[in-house]
Specification:
about 280 residues, mainly beta, nine-stranded mixed β-sheet, globular
Length: about 280
């Protein structure tokens, strides 16, 4: 959790907030899953299940995934550079992307989130394989990069165990959908760190939008200048994309979105997306 010694910080009780990828939430609305636990969607919200399927926690309520303005984005809504692909009404079945951990940012107090992810058209849910830098207190730490999996559903967020990584490391984020007796299960993890970063979601909605994103915040202050660039430049390499009807991928391309847009080096589904932060 970010802490600041200023009047606005204490007046708005921002010490109760935690910056997480896509949101600013109070810590009690962010749950860390232990190995073997699962998120299950139900009519009233969703449940956290144990390895044996026992309900550990009930999370109630519905609502869109929204950015709480207590967390001031560096620019715009925080999503600086986005490569987006929408294949609705079909759903993604698997997406696998590779990128390198950049150098430690030469900045003070910034939080960065670099991720590949999938979301639904309603904006209610997003599942992400996240490389994080910063002091968000929920899956991030000062002065180092960490990887973890995140799921933002209506009214709350969950994340996996976090793993420290070093500049220059090659990381592989995977999001996959499988079908079972209890319906579809989505899984998000980093290859080589499946045990630590696995985050399964049972009964989630169809995810028809895929993202490769650089998101950044400067605590609770909007700085006068844009953030410093990340070095070396971030390039997401999409190694594999599958969907419920692979004909939907015919003609599908990655589109540039966000405040600074993305450098679409190869727009095809098995493409390359360069991230801009200036």
């Amino acid at each position: 959790m970010i802490k600041h010694n200023n009047r606005q910080y204490h007046k708005r009780k921002l010490w109760k907030q935690a910056i997480v990828p896509g949101l600013c939430k109070i810590p009690r609305k962010c749950f860390q899953l232990r190995a073997g636990q699962t998120i299950k969607h139900v009519a009233s919200g969703w449940h956290i299940l144990s390895r044996k399927g026992k309900i550990i926690r009930k999370v109630r309520g519905h609502g869109k995934v929204r950015l709480n303005q207590a967390a001031s984005p560096i620019v715009g809504n925080g999503w600086l550079s986005v490569g987006l692909m929408n294949i609705a009404p079909c759903t993604f079945v698997m997406i696998k992307s590779v990128w390198n951990v950049p150098d430690i940012p030469q900045t003070d107090g910034n939080s960065y989130f670099l991720f590949n992810g999938v979301g639904d058209e309603s904006g209610n849910s997003i599942l992400q394989a996240v490389l994080a830098f910063g002091s968000n207190g929920q899956g991030g730490a000062d002065g180092q990069w960490q990887i973890s999996s995140w799921y933002h559903g209506p009214s709350a967020s969950t994340f996996s165990h976090t793993v420290k990584v070093n500049p220059g490391d090659v990381i592989v984020g995977v999001i996959a959908r499988s079908l079972g007796q209890n319906g579809p299960t989505w899984s998000c993890y980093f290859e080589g760190f499946e045990k630590q970063t696995m985050l399964p979601v049972l009964g989630a909605p169809d995810f028809s939008i895929a993202y490769h994103t650089c998101e950044a915040y400067q605590g609770y202050q909007i700085p006068a200048d844009p953030p410093l660039p990340l070095n070396p430049p971030i390039i997401f390499k999409v190694e594999s994309v599958l969907c419920s009807d692979n004909n939907a991928l015919t003609g599908a391309t990655w589109q540039s979105e966000g405040t600074f847009g993305a450098n679409i080096l190869n727009p095809s589904p098995i493409g390359q997306i360069g991230i801009r932060v200036m």
